[in-house]
């Protein structure tokens, strides 16, 4: 069962094309910005949001801490953006459309974490920090966005929505994009047999960390950092072969699913 779960996750990851890179969803396709897009391995470019949809979704993010990932937040966002509440019909998946928008914009913020003002790029230029540590830093950055945006207390609701069978494929696809983008931004250029397992392992670690973060009451999510460090150490111990890594990914993912089930998710 664990290995099958790992295979399910890795199937969401596209194999890299060594001589070709295509543009992933850019910041300009999600929110207006003068920042140029960056590239990652063989990610298809999804259709951009319309200006109306972007305005409503962006405004709706402000209401998530109070109203959660709900149509209520979308309605309030539409009002804030100057549109009628009926404009929320632009989002046939309702709350899940808002969740996807939050995930995409948060993922794209990692670009600024590296290349933006006071980003990691200058520190990493020395070459003294290896890819593994860079990856871990970006995982912490992405988790920090959950806390800074105020959505963390609402995240169990989002996890339950994403775990619904209808939305699982899109949820896993977005998680795989996050793992791929993190490795790309961390400077990983390897194209070998570990391409799948590295990303599947990272996706499993991040998914488990988000669940842990929803219960973390420590200052600055210090306990979550310890949790993530422990998972990376476990992964290093498992990296003796593809099969052992797959088993580790399967176990971690299965544990993550069990936590979701304990919260009422029907999966």
From TrEMBL:
GO MF entry, a single one: lipid binding
GO cellular component: mitochondrial inner membrane
Assigned keywords, A-Z: Lipid-binding, Mitochondrion, Transit peptide, Ubiquinone, Ubiquinone biosynthesis
Gene3D superfamilies named in the record: Tetracycline Repressor, domain 2
Gene Ontology BP annotations: ubiquinone biosynthetic process
Locations listed in the record: Mitochondrion
Record-annotated COQ9 C-terminal domain positions: 168-237
Pathway: Cofactor biosynthesis; ubiquinone biosynthesis
Superkingdom of origin: Eukaryota
UniProt-listed InterPro entries: COQ9_C, Ubiq_biosynth_COQ9
PANTHER family, A to Z: UBIQUINONE BIOSYNTHESIS PROTEIN COQ9, MITOCHONDRIAL (PTHR21427:SF19)
Family under the similarity heading: Belongs to the COQ9 family.
Function: Membrane-associated protein that warps the membrane surface to access and bind aromatic isoprenes with high specificity, including ubiquinone (CoQ) isoprene intermediates and presents them directly to Coq7, therefore facilitating the Coq7-mediated hydroxylase step. Participates in the biosynthesis of coenzyme Q, also named ubiquinone, an essential lipid-soluble electron transporter for aerobic cellular respiration.
Designated name of the protein: Ubiquinone biosynthesis protein
């Amino acid at each position: 069962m664990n290995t099958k779960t790992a295979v399910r996750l890795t199937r969401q990851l596209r194999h890299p094309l060594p001589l070709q890179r295509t543009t992933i969803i850019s910041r300009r396709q999600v929110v207006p910005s003068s920042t140029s897009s960056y590239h990652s391995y063989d990610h298809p470019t999804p259709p951009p949001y319309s200006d109306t949809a972007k305005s409503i979704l962006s405004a709706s993010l402000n209401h998530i801490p109070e109203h959660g990932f709900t149509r209520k937040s979308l309605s309030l966002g539409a009002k804030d953006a100057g549109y009628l509440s009926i404009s929320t019909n632009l989002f046939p998946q309702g709350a899940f459309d808002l969740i996807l928008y939050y995930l995409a914009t948060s993922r794209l913020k990692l670009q600024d974490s590296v290349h933006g003002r006071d980003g990691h790029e200058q520190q990493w230029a020395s070459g003294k920090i290896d890819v593994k540590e860079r990856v871990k830093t970006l995982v912490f950055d992405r988790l920090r966005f959950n806390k800074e945006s105020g959505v963390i207390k609402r995240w169990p609701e989002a996890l339950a929505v994403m775990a619904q069978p209808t939305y699982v494929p899109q949820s896993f696809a977005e998680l795989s994009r996050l793992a791929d983008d993190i490795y790309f931004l961390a400077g990983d250029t390897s194209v070998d047999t570990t391409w799948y397992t590295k990303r599947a392992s990272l996706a499993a670690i991040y998914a488990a960390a988000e669940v842990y973060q929803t219960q973390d009451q420590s200052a600055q999510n210090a306990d979550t950092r310890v949790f993530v460090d422990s998972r990376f150490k476990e992964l290093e111990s498992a990296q003796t072969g593809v099969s052992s890594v797959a088993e580790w990914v399967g176990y971690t993912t299965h544990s993550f699913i069990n936590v979701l089930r304990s919260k009422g998710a029907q999966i």
